[in-house]
Predict the structure.
Amino acid sequence: MGRGVAYSTTEAAHLLNVRAEGMSAWAGEANHFANRFAAEGGTPRGFAQRRFFAVYLGEMLSDAVATGRIELAEATAVSAVRDGAGWRIGFEDGRSFEARALVLAVGNQEPEGLGAFAGVGRRFVRNPWGDDARAAVADLAEGGRPALIVGTGLTMVDLVLSLDAAGYQGRIVALSRRGLIPRAHADFDAAPTEKNELPDGLRSMFRWLRRRSAEVGWRAAVDSLRPYSHHLWQSLTLDEQRRFLRHARPWWDVHRHRIAPEVAATVAAMIGAGRLEIVAGKIALASETPAGVEVEYRRRGSTGSRTETFAYVFNCTGPLHSVTRSKDPLLRSLLDAGQVRPDRLGIGVDVDGTCRAGEHLWAMGPLTKGRYWEIIAVPDIREQAAAVAEDIARELGK
Ligand SMILES: Cc1cc2nc3c(=O)[nH]c(=O)nc-3n(C[C@H](O)[C@H](O)[C@H](O)COP(=O)(O)OP(=O)(O)OC[C@H]3O[C@@H](n4cnc5c(N)ncnc54)[C@H](O)[C@@H]3O)c2cc1C
């Protein structure tokens, strides 16, 4: 309970991508996690294992349950309908639950398939976080045959670490349009920015970032925008937000969502040893053959193509990007009934400034990225959680 995709990993190699000092679950108690990590010998600037963060979350959840004010139900919610002034939530096992308020905190949505691999069976692993992916990693570790990863972001890094930890010595090709991979955390002197110095509009934001990076280093420049990220995102026009998602996002993601230095070192060593090749390019064709998945891909800027056979292809392009295609039954039921609407970009659900998606209905976390964009990691979500809790108390206390 409470672990989600991110913290249910059992692998030691999977580290948090935020320093311990940034991972407190509580808004206003900055050192809460760092202190817990210190009790295990960790340092505030260190990167804990994600499975340890799960222990931390579990401890707080147990404390909350022990108060008697929280009841956990192990079930999949499949429907939510308005019932008088509240909600009736239906569970997959036939039970139901009545509530005055409903909060959607369903996290990231599973990725869809990739068009080029529509004709490929089990050798195409659509969901890199599921059991199929774990079975494929074990199979690869045994046979050592080549693997293709589509996507070169944080999910690719996770999978590469899993393969390495499983003892896989074969060749991995990781491919994305631009071939950008997450940059490493490193110490730097912070260079805070005043609100009146902020860039205005998408074009000037990237000009500003280039100039500021030259002055104070790119890490300090990117991080100086963090306190204003919601304001900046909301000040962009719809067209600018779309252009950001289409063109600037890969660049932003690799600089903003950085990986622990030790993880970066493992990835670099694997690249250096020829075990991992990062390719900027496009898949042209893919088909299943008795030998595996035959993939023709084109490198960016090259006219020719290359064809290789891989034992498995993993979809590491990240969470589903279009909320209307979500398969989450609860979300589906609410969308289909018009109780929640997609946001104007279609990447999450439409919420107002207090995260309300409807009457007595709140949404949090990645579901609200259309409004906030930077709302997928703990440092942002904990602030949102505190604000939503206060708003619910205000509303229900009426
Ligand atoms: C691999 C990975 C690594 C990450 N690493 C970090 C990190 O190091 N630091 C960081 O700050 N952030 C990290 N993140 C971001 C992460 O998404 C957030 O930190 C956080 O987990 C989001 O919390 P959440 O509660 O919104 O969603 P989740 O943690 O995804 O939780 C959603 C929960 O809702 C449940 N659920 C969904 N639908 C239903 C339904 N219909 N009925 C019942 N239950 C349902 C799910 O089973 C799950 O338990 C990572 C994300 C991923 C995917």
In short: Residues 185 and 258 are 6 Å apart (CA to CA). The first strand starts at residue 77 and ends at 83.
